[in-house]
Design brief:
- The chain has 22 helices and two strands.
- It has helices spanning 2-6, 10-27, 34-41, 50-67, 69-75, 86-95, 99-133, 137-154, 159-173, 199-216, 235-244, 246-260, 266-281, 293-317, 323-334, 343-346, 348-379, 384-403, 406-424, 430-452, 459-462, 464-494, and strands spanning 176-177, 184-185.
- The relative contact order is 0.17.
């Protein structure tokens, strides 16, 4: 109790809340990621107490991950990589006049998912961390393939178009330095291309600039409001939906936490996998992508829960779960703290403070996030021509800020054109981003695994966790046809 009460001291509370407000602002601007927000916060914590600095880092990360869903819902531009899945149903709900309802669900599910993730962190962190340590290159390969298989699930229209989009993403992912041989591939002598194509500029171009191109061809709609609210929301309506989908929230939060606990996976993969699994088991799977509540609840419950998961290997073994916790580990070293199994005995008071901050941050997120939604709702009610200019400005600034490179601005423009023509042809955009994100992870772990096994593919199938992933992938791709064939045979026998 003493640890809980200590975090409400003004020297901790004031910078903590200000950091969370910054997180709402940074997450809501496309290109300015949660990792960037944390990196901006860390230098400000040098002369603070450890818990004050960690409270700022935790607060800004939770808020930035949520706030990334705001432009994803209103403008179809993910504010952060973890918000990529939010565009599928969130933007469609906005087009139906239910954007505020989508974000109300988003906010509450972020808070609930975050709480579930923290409770798992508190009670079963060592067990999950031991499970995460069992993952080698063989398991990470199948995890990435499993995530990529979600492209077959989330794609609307024909599955072949989803495969085309996914293949394009994998092709773009091969550009840059070969991590195994150190040889540049498809760089055509360009030093910028040797670093590869960043998926954040690509994502901004695909989803943001392509939308601008679409509306440029419809000038008669320029003076219309960007968003039109036709549905009034209430606490009762949101509470009813949360109760109705309580099992989905719990399942998505657990999926997010487990994937977040795997070093290198992160909230973006957790959101996509959770969305794909929700669609696979739903009775309304055909309606996913048209603006239904389940498509909002699943990814947003997973990505905030994944943040709690990333702290599991970080605290228990000192292994960063993602880029945010990598920065956090550096900050903890700066404070003279050594993460690892002994931290729970040597710094039990600080660990209890961290857990308390994480839980209270969810309450603050509910309040600050609500004000953030109201603010952005007001901004996005401006005429569309004003908002489109803002999208272009923020897309350029956000992409340039990543590496201070005009080349990334060119990537945004290129992928904006690609995204526009893909949508004309009815080819879905999300599988391309999945291929771009997961391509390096698949290739690197496959090649390293083959080196370890002297070129044998057997360890990829004989290890228990790898085999479990392989079976899941087979079920995802061939489960529906098998079920349909068995039903048809049963009907024939019955007649």
């Amino acid at each position: 109790m003493e640890a809980v009460l200590s975090i409400f001291h003004l020297s901790i509370l004031v910078p903590w809340i200000l950091a969370m407000v910054l997180g709402i602002f940074v997450g809501g601007i496309p290109g300015l990621t949660a990792t960037m927000a944390v990196a901006l916060i860390v230098p400000l914590t040098f002369h603070m107490s450890p818990i004050a600095g960690l409270a700022m880092i935790l607060g800004v990360s939770f808020c930035a991950i949520f706030a990334g869903d705001i432009p994803a819902t209103f403008l179809r531009i993910p504010g952060t990589p973890a918000s990529g899945a939010a565009i599928l149903d969130g933007y469609e709900m906005t087009r139906k006049g239910k954007g505020s309802l989508a974000l109300a669900l988003d906010l509450t599910c972020s808070v609930i998912g975050g709480l579930i993730g923290i409770l798992i962190l508190i009670f079963i962190a060592p067990l999950l961390a031991k499970f995460a340590l069992k993952f080698t290159n063989f398991e990470y390969f199948w995890l990435a393939v499993f995530g990529l298989s979600m492209s077959a699930v989330i794609s609307r229209g024909t599955r072949i178009k989803g495969v085309i989009s996914m293949t394009l993403g994998l092709i773009f992912a091969t550009i840059g330095i070969d991590i195994t041989t150190g040889y540049p591939r498809f760089s055509f002598g360009s030093t910028e291309l040797m670093a590869g194509i960043g998926f954040i500029p690509a994502m901004i171009g695909l989803f943001g600039l392509s939308e601008v191109f679409k509306y440029v061809l419809l000038p008669e709609s320029f003076k219309n409001p960007t968003i039109k609210e036709r549905v009034q929301i209430s606490f009762k309506s949101v509470g009813t939906l949360l109760y109705r989908f309580k099992l989905l929230i719990l399942r998505s939060a657990i999926i997010g936490n487990v994937i977040g606990a795997l070093p290198g996976a992160g909230a973006d993969i957790a959101a996509w996998v959770s969305y794909g699994m929700a669609k696979k088991v739903s009775r309304r799977s055909e309606e996913f992508g048209t603006g239904i509540e389940e498509g909002i609840i699943a990814p947003t419950s997973a990505n905030n829960s994944a943040l709690g998961g990333t702290w599991i290997p970080a605290l228990v073994f000192g292994i960063p779960g993602d880029t945010i916790t990598a920065i956090v580990l550096g900050a903890m070293m700066m404070y003279g703290l050594k993460p690892g199994p002994l931290i729970f005995q040597q710094n039990a008071y600080l660990v209890n403070q961290i857990f308390s901050v994480a839980i209270v941050s969810q309450i603050f997120l509910l309040i600050i996030g609500w004000f953030g939604i109201r603010m952005y709702t007001y901004v996005f009610k401006f005429p569309r021509n004003v908002v489109l200019v803002g999208i272009i400005i923020f897309s350029v600034v956000g992409s340039y800020a990543l590496r201070s490179s005009l080349f990334d601005v060119g990537i945004v423009l290129l992928f904006g054109v690609i995204g526009y023509f893909m949508e004309i042809c009815g080819i879905p955009l999300p599988p391309l981003i999945l291929g771009l994100i997961l391509g390096p992870m698949i290739e690197d772990n496959l090649r390293v695994g083959l080196v370890k096994s002297d070129g044998s593919f057997l360890p990829f199938l004989t290890r228990p966790i790898s085999l479990a992933f392989f079976i899941l992938i087979v079920i995802i791709f061939f489960g529906d046809p098998i079920i349909k064939c068995s039903r048809a045979l049963f009907r024939r026998r019955a007649t």
